[in-house]
Amino acid sequence: MSKRELQIYPSPVLPISDDAVDFVRFEKNLLQIGFFGANDGRDRLRTTRRIEQTVYREGQKVKVAAEFRGSDKLGLPTTVDRDKFIGLLKIIDEGRGTTGQIQNPVRFSGYRLIQELGLARNGEIYEEIMRWGKRMMDTTITSEKVVYRAAKKIYSDEVLHVFRSFRRTGASKHDGSDRQEEYEVLLEDWLVENLNQRYVVPEDINAYKQLTRPTAKGIFGNLHLWFHASHGKPVEKDYVELCNLLCIQVYPHLSKIRSTMGLALDELVKIMYVQKWDVQPMTSKKGYKIVLWPGSDLMRSLRTSRRELPAPSVQNGKQPDVDLDDPALALLKKHGIVPAKARQLFDRYGADTVMDTVEYLEFQISTGKRGKVENPAGLIIYSLENEFPVPVGFISSRRRVAMRETAERLQAKEAENNRLHEVYERWVESERENAFATRYPGAELEAKLAEVITAQRKNNPLFKRVSIDQHRPMALQIIRKEVNVSFTVPSFEDWVSGTRQIDLFN
Prior knowledge:
The protein is α+β, with helices and mostly antiparallel strands. It folds into three domains: 18-298, no CATH class; 323-394, no CATH class; 407-505, no CATH class. It contains 19 helices and twelve strands. A hairpin with a 2-residue loop joins strand 2 (48-57) and strand 3. Helix 11 crosses helix 12 and helix 12 (339-366) packs across helix 13. It is extended. The model is unreliable at 1-19, 173-177, 307-324 and 499-506 (pLDDT under 50).
């Protein structure tokens, strides 16, 4: 790590009691898409990065992706930036105020941030905070159905940022003494919404401060997701996919894997977030997998976080999770599946897959296609755990509602599009009238009409055949046609996306 890049100082490794847990609420998307790479802070040559994942949605495997783009000067966010972002989240949590909601802008002092993170106070750290803010503002996220918008309950397909703006507002004396650095950040709307919706992963900042290795810090937050979903059972992660998520180098040999990633895993063992780990060959394909067993302090942190926050909203990229009264859980228990197993299936496969699968099996049983089923609970569990797809042609109650909502959205979109076209045509006509009036005001129009009438009488035999009363209207049409030929307006698409769109919807 460069001397110019500062990191959190590690604290002594001690067991963490429930009272010592100090949660910071980390936004889930930034964790799941690997926004903060675990590569060394000196690696500023990388300005683009793409993460692709396969997730289950609506009972189908779907490929999603996130692409990050940064500037040549600042590069992409790394663990060093993650440190400061955690400090900012801590400050934000404490400043929610009486409403309990996060509001823009967020203001904080440089001293407050470095105090929260245990950083050394010197002149360079203030400049590093400024570079961090610029890098966060500069980095672009292109979400391909991967970033979840908790308020709208949709996966976005759009270009996003984390910070909308970041600026320094503090001052010092002319000689540089008595320095008081103040900063102001505007968080993007989607981030504010997700934080207020509690679409977060609670992380214990005291445990995080004990870590020194970037890879250990990168894995740290994901441990909360993995072991919450597994209910404390060991988890297995594809080594190559994990490296891609963390933005670290992939090594082909077992000895090298143990001597690199193994050091980070050992650090997680020391803080008791991992009990033990192993690297094993994969059975389904060539390569290795990382096997992790949860540590006692991680499980204690998970238990504490469940008491502090509402039920999590999403599990491993699946549809939003809800409470124990969810219809999907009720449907599983209706068929005799015990609550613990029902919750496990719900967490692993998501409400949509559970509902579609159970309703499809109910349909098959009711129509006699499966005959008499003596153990419907076993059939449901077997079908879910073997990921049997529900035929596209089967319209479950959930799909029926989704189809109706989609149709309503399309109708509303078409109606709105027609309305916009009408407004656009009226606007174009108004612009043409203005252009005409500007080009031929008052007496100039009368002179031009006389000129056109004279020329048409002389050169156009058809013009002579119409009555004198029609000469002026026809001449006016000829002049308008000439003006329209030289008159240009933006296309409908450009008009809608341009500044006129603001006036339209006000």
